[in-house]
Amino acid sequence: KAGVTQTPRYLIKTRGQQVTLSCSPISGHRSVSWYQQTPGQGLQFLFEYFSETQRNKGNFPGRFSGRQFSNSRSEMNVSTLELGDSALYLCASSFGQGAGELFFGEGSRLTVL
Amino acid sequence: GESVGLHLPTLSVQEGDNSIINCAYSNSASDYFIWYKQESGKGPQFIIDIRSNMDKRQGQRVTVLLNKTVKHLSLQIAATQPGDSAVYFCAETGLNTGNQFYFGTGTSLTVIP
């Protein structure tokens, strides 16, 4: 069974640009969550989607957005990039609607110059 | 806000010894807890979970203990092996918050051969 796949794995952007990250969950999983990981703040919850609906949202500015498609694949977008957005962005999928084991991808490493 | 913290940022143990990693949480309404292991360059990997109606759960070489009175969680690894070297995170979520987990800052475990 294929795991969670995130693309791209690495990317470099400059301030003011925007970026779109993609996540393909494990087959059959309907919940997709996004987390930001930085050395200073650790792992922080961005948002969660279930059946194409945003179910929860973390404490991030509106520049961070996401969506989920009917096949459960998800994308997140960060607009007007700032230096502080440099981080590892992790996607996790889960099977059900309630809290359960998260299966993480290997992340997309974003560097903002 | 939510606060999940770790007592020790680093831990070194001899191969074959037992390891204990601690975690404190602040939300008494937390219902579900997970320990994750993250190796360099990889996403977090599920180790073991426990719900608030339990105080102990055992897996293969690992045991999680939950003390709700003092809001404390611990992970015990028996017969620690070099492959256990990684960063370990505790994560918690409350009722009705889906997969919005709050992660601790992590403990780096180094196993000395």
What does this structure look like?
- Chain A has 113 residues and is mainly β.
- In chain A, 0% of the residues lie in helices and 53% in strands.
- Chain A is built from no helices and eleven strands.
- Chain A has strands spanning 5-7, 10-13, 19-24, 31-38, 42-50, 53-57, 64-68, 74-78, 87-94, 103-104, 108-112.
- In chain A, the strands form two sheets. In chain A, strands 2, 4, 5, 6, 9, 10 and 11 form a seven-stranded mixed β-sheet that branches. In chain A, strands 1-3-8-7 form a four-stranded antiparallel β-sheet, with no helix packed on it.
- In chain A, strand 4 and strand 5 (42-50) form a beta hairpin.
- Chain A is globular.
- The N and C termini of chain A lie far apart (37 Å).
- Chain B is an all-beta fold and 113 residues long.
- In chain B, the strands form two sheets. In chain B, strands 2, 4, 5, 9, 10 and 11 form a six-stranded mixed β-sheet that branches.
- The N and C termini of chain B lie far apart (40 Å).
- The chains are: A mainly beta (113), B mainly beta (113).
- The A-B interface holds A 4, 31, 33, 35, 42-45, 48, 50, 55-56, 58-59, 90, 92, 94, 97-107 and B 1, 31-32, 34, 36, 41-46, 49, 89, 91, 93, 97-106.
